[in-house]
Design a protein that fits this description.
Layout lengths: L11 E2 H7 L5 H9 L3 E3 L2 E2 L6 E2 L6 E3 L2 E2 L8 E6 L28 E3 L6 E8 L2 H8 L7 E8 L4 H9 L2 E2 L2 E2 L4 E6 L4 E8 L6 H8 L4 E9 L2 E2 L8 E3 L2 H10 L8
Parallel strand pairs: 9-15
Antiparallel strand pairs: 1-4, 2-3, 2-5, 5-6, 7-9, 7-17, 8-9, 10-14, 10-15, 11-12, 13-14, 15-16
The structure holds uracil.
Length: about 250
């Protein structure tokens, strides 16, 4: 079925869609179409009046997907302890779904935090972005504050930075610095670029420090900031652009 045959009322002319996405003026968009630079769902189009369904049809200009940002919702949650990072839990535990804002968007979480971990969790209905952000190729960095037992030495932190041998392999180079050193507990700042299960807890346990509390303060370019525990906020346009850039998308569609 070609895009223009789909039975829907939300269709839009291709040149109007491209203009709305900020790619070119309507006239300029017509030129792009007639120059054979536009594809819909992988098919080259040169026909002027063709229609697309924004958010459903994949429109590309010179091979770059064109996106309308405002059709997607990007939210961060400061997840409290005691909630699982899924929308439904077969075991009936509390889920982050209970903390999501009232919206028509079908939000889902990008990645997970352990039940007992607090901090930043991204929620969106942008499946394409979520998929890329989770892909190891993009090495999304995540920053954690870990309250640990004991007082880690500089040598221990250097070991964590270089890579720790876990059951499922050696961890990639990380950043690890002591934020506060105490006799019984200390605070360690850790930045990792991968997402093995319970990774931070296992890395620190492997070098002799039990994690007593774990809080994620940054997810890629997005800082948690002062958002209160249990609350959500919508990302700014600049934050969404930064996320898209992190995932290798062009900044288009303002
Ligand atoms: N590492 C952990 O150990 N737990 C988390 O929730 C996230 C990273």
């Amino acid at each position: 079925m070609t895009p223009s045959q789909k039975p829907t009322s939300s269709e839009e002319r291709l040149n109007k869609f491209l203009a709305r996405a900020g790619v070119a003026s309507r006239r300029g968009a017509e030129e792009l179409i007639s120059a054979g630079r536009v594809r819909i769902n992988g098919n080259l189009v040169t026909e002027m009046g063709i229609k697309v369904i924004p958010g459903e049809d994949v429109v590309e200009v010179d091979g770059t997907p064109v996106r309308l940002k405002e059709e997607r919702l990007y939210v961060i949650l400061n997840k409290p302890a005691g909630y699982v990072s899924t929308l439904k839990d077969p075991q009936g535990r509390r889920t982050v779904a209970e903390l999501m804002p009232a919206t028509d968007h079908r939000l889902f979480n990008v990645g997970r935090l352990d039940m007992d971990t607090t901090g930043i969790l991204l929620l969106t209905d942008d499946g394409e972005l979520a998929h890329r952000l989770m892909h190891p190729r993009y090495h999304m960095s995540k920053e954690y504050m870990a309250t640990v037992s004991g007082r880690p030495t500089e040598e221990t932190l250097a070991h964590v930075r270089a890579g720790v041998e876990l059951d499922d392999g050696l961890t990639r180079p990380a950043e690890a610095t002591a934020d506060r050193l105490g006799d019984t507990t200390s605070l360690v700042r850790l930045v990792i670029r991968e997402g093995k299960k319970r990774q931070v807890r296992r890395m620190l346990a492997a070098v002799g420090h039990r994690v007593l509390a774990l809080h994620r303060v940054r997810f890629g370019p997005i800082e948690l900031g002062e958002l209160p525990l249990g609350e959500t906020r919508v990302l700014t346009d600049a934050e969404v652009d930064a996320l898209l850039a992190n995932a290798g998308f062009e900044k288009r569609g303002t």
